[in-house]
Amino acid sequence: MTDKTFRFPAEWEPQDAILIAWPTEQTDWADRLGEVEETYIALVQAITRYQPVLIVAADDDIESYAQARLSSNRVDMQRVKFLQAPYDDTWLRDTGPITLRDGDRFLTLDYRFTGWGGKFGASQDDLLVQRLSEQRTFNQDRLESVDFALEGGAIETDGAGTLLSTWTCLQTRHPDRSRDEVNAILQSTLNQDRILWLDNGYLEGDDTDAHIDTLARFAGADRIVYQSCDDANDTHFEPLQAMAAELAAFRTTDGQPYQLFALPWADPILDEGRRLAASYANFLIVNGAVIMPGYGDVKDAQAVAVMQQAFPQHEIVQVNCRPLIWQNGSLHCITMQMPRGSVADKVLNS
């Protein structure tokens, strides 16, 4: 059981850096590496306007290559720091550290990563947090390994004890456990007072079994941004309408309904006949800004406008993520935020 003095901070709280891993020919990006690199470069450009980026590279050659690519695109390299560790792929939302804090004390949680329920090999990814911890990357009081399969994209917190998740994902990972059992494990290890479960909502082309970060996200203690669908002829219409009804029925800890912000529905994006999961809900919050995906769709601008309403104190920056959804994820999926004070000084000042 996690020390109850530690708290799971919300993504909008102050951060030290964003953690990513550089795509290579050894990852699933190999067939379209050039396009994907352009998205990574644009993402690093966007983040470094506000804070540092920590980039995991598999070896010296990859680090040197990434450094050259970023430098040639005029990225502020003073805000780019490199780490080295092997990895299977670059989905750090699911393989990176989940950090809890108690003032200036930090607890790094290392849940089991199973390749989204055994769909893909994950032996290196499951060791990533441990390897980074061994390199003293984190200012942590301790690293706590949790014998429970959980991906960071499957959970969303308001920083005040409420967790939002989808039962489809957690049930798929743990078919032999009841909802009460899963609820108790999440509350105990993440120090949450309550969990709001969504039973509806999915995206075609998503192989995470309905991660919450593709569907609905907290934008504050009383605000939720969610992916809507207004096309009655689309296969997503009924499940996303049902999800919207569930969100409308949720109440804050004060007993009030949440302010809901419906993101527009992009036109179908197909890849050799396969529908891709183009969700605007897969955004990243950094210090002073929200970086959100764009897909080259006419709805991109409308999505920015909705996000600005949900985050009136933040700048909204859009990055082309069409290359990412080819591999079934988007911008939030490839990033992990590090709370302010959680990254070792030797890393930030290297």
What does this entry show, briefly?
Helix content is 27%, strand content 25%. It has helices at 33-47, 60-72, 92-95, 115-118, 128-134, 167-173, 179-190, 237-249, 300-310, 322-325, 345-348, and strands at 15-21, 53-57, 80-84, 98-102, 105-112, 142-149, 155-157, 162-166, 194-198, 216-220, 223-227, 259-263, 270-271, 274-275, 284-286, 289-294, 315-320, 336-339. This is Agmatine deiminase family protein.
Describe the 3D structure.
- The structure is a single chain.
- This protein has 350 residues and is an alpha/beta fold.
- The chain has one domain: L-arginine/glycine Amidinotransferase, Chain A (5-stranded Propeller).
- The chain has eleven helices and 18 strands.
- It has helices spanning 33-47, 60-72, 92-95, 115-118, 128-134, 167-173, 179-190, 237-249, 300-310, 322-325, 345-348; strands at residues 15-21, 53-57, 80-84, 98-102, 105-112, 142-149, 155-157, 162-166, 194-198, 216-220, 223-227, 259-263, 270-271, 274-275, 284-286, 289-294, 315-320, 336-339.
- The strands form six sheets. A four-stranded mixed beta sheet has the order 3-2-1-18. The chain has a three-stranded mixed beta sheet with strand order 4-5-6, sandwiched between helices. A three-stranded mixed beta sheet has the order 7-8-9, with helices on both faces.
- Helix 1 (33-47) links the parallel strand 1 and strand 2 (53-57).
- It is globular, with a radius of gyration of 19 Å.
- The mean pLDDT is 97.
- Pfam families: PAD_porph.
- This is Agmatine deiminase family protein.
Describe the SSE topology.
Layout: E1 15-21, H1 33-47, E2 53-57, H2 60-72, E3 80-84, H3 92-95, E4 98-102, E5 105-112, H4 115-118, H5 128-134, E6 142-149, E7 155-157, E8 162-166, H6 167-173, H7 179-190, E9 194-198, E10 216-220, E11 223-227, H8 237-249, E12 259-263, E13 270-271, E14 274-275, E15 284-286, E16 289-294, H9 300-310, E17 315-320, H10 322-325, E18 336-339, H11 345-348
Parallel strand pairs: 1-2, 2-3, 5-6, 8-9, 11-12, 16-17
Antiparallel strand pairs: 1-18, 4-5, 7-8, 10-11, 13-14, 15-16
